[in-house]
Amino acid sequence: MRARDLAVGYESVSLDSDATDAARLMAEHRLPALLVLDGQGEPRAILPASQMVKVLVPAYVIEDPTLAAVVDEKHADRLCQALAGRTVGDCLSSRSVAPPIAAPDDTALEVAALMAQVRSPLVAVVDKAKDGRHLLGVITASHLLHELLGVSGKLDPTS
Question: What sections of 30-65 are H helices per DSSP?
Fold first, then answer.
């Protein structure tokens, strides 16, 4: 099985997308991360849902988690206001790196090795052509596991 066969359409955002809209997209579709594209539509970064949650938590609580117990529910309900006026680019970690990219002809094992090496919940599948790079789709860790287990016959407990 090749990466082109495993790739599926996946929600993506741009660096300039509204952070609240991106968080809402993650929540509504229960996505582990979003693929962030640059102005040319090429993969630029992966924004994990955990990073969006981190943006919501005040820095003083991250430094001292025991302070979370003293924040009342009224204030906790306002956490999402931290996204107001921010872009997806603002929410990316300063240590964010380019997303893992697989070639269309990469095998499922090559994709799995790449995903494991960089500990990413998804891999972009990109075709390099003379006119530039074209995003074919994304392979998520859960989809890859599903396909690998299905191919090996281990997904069906009766087999």
Answer: 49-56, 59-63
CA distance 146 to 67: 40
d(CA 47, CA 113): 20
- How far apart CA 66 and CA 56 sit, in angstroms, is 16
- The pTM assigned to this predicted structure is 0.80
Structure tokens at 87: 């872009």
Residue 35 dihedral angles phi and psi, to the nearest 5°:
-85, 130
Q: What is the pLDDT along the chain (159 residues), one digit of tens a residue?
A: 899 999 999 999 999 999 999 999 999 999 999 999 988 888 999 999 989 888 888 777 778 777 777 776 666 567 777 788 899 999 998 888 889 999 999 999 999 999 999 999 999 999 988 887 889 999 999 999 998 888 655 555 554
Distance CA 146, CA 159 (A): 15
CA 16 to chain centroid: 16
Nearest to 91 by CA among 12, 10, 15, 11: 15
